[in-house]
Amino acid sequence: MLAVKKAALFIGTIKRNSGEVEMKYIRKILLSGTLFFNKWFFIFLNFRNSTRISRSVKMKNINNIELGEKSRIRDRVYLYSYRDGKIILGKNVTIEDYVILEALNKSIEIGDNSTVNQFSIFRSWGDIKIGNGVRIGPHVQIMAMNHIFTNSDKYIYQQGIEGSGIEIGNNVWIGGNVTILDGVKIGDNCVIGAGSIVVKNIEENSLAVGNPAKIIKKLNFYI
User: InterPro entries, from UniProt (predicted)?
Assistant: First the structure.
């Protein structure tokens, strides 16, 4: 009976605050009354404050996922946490359709008032830290990981993965189809042109384009 009472409260919370979450999970909860329910109940208490989550969103290891108030998670988004990986979204963050965030071993953190557009993929074997007011275009890949291939006696897939992390500052615009590779730091107030591949650090107040991305202009921001 306790599980049923909690489920009733849980459903009421969802109806008041999100209205878009997948209802099949609620049906499973009512039928099972297991600890699986407790995880969802706990998570959605943390997802209140006008956070909106599409019915088609999929999450893995949800105790390691934190969504800030007024965040919006659109259709077919995958938020997957593995091992010690965490996904932390700030206030008023928008994750558009078909985005994949995979915290494989470290954290993915996205700051307040930032947007990730359609079909982008982030994978973190090292920490991915994205600042406030960042705009990330569609089909962007942010890959804080590398396959190890130093041992010539083993297949690459047998040698493991490493990652040192990626950091993106505040007030950054990353154009569509950009790839950002492991170890890169992009400073505040930067623009990365569409289709660029970023393999080295980009200092603050810079416009960078190309493969590999190079600074072609300094920008004048005072924020």
Answer: Hexapep, Hexapeptide_acetyltransf, Trimer_LpxA-like_sf
CB hemisphere CA count around 217 (13 angstroms)? 10
Amino acid, single-letter form, for residue 17:
N
The pairing of beta strand 185-186 with beta strand 100-103: unpaired
For residue 81, give Cα distances in angstroms to 61, 169, 216.
5, 23, 37
pTM of the model: 0.79
CA distance 160 to 113: 35
Q: Is 72 helix (H, G, I), strand (E, B) or coil?
A: strand
Domains annotated for the chain, with CATH where assigned, are 1-48 (no CATH), 55-218 (2.160.10.10)
Active-site amino acid positions? 147
Residue 34, Cβ density class (10 Å: 0-12 exposed, 13-18 middle, ≥19 buried): exposed
Task: List the one residue out of 220, 120, 211, 95 whose CA is nearest residue 174.
Answer: 120
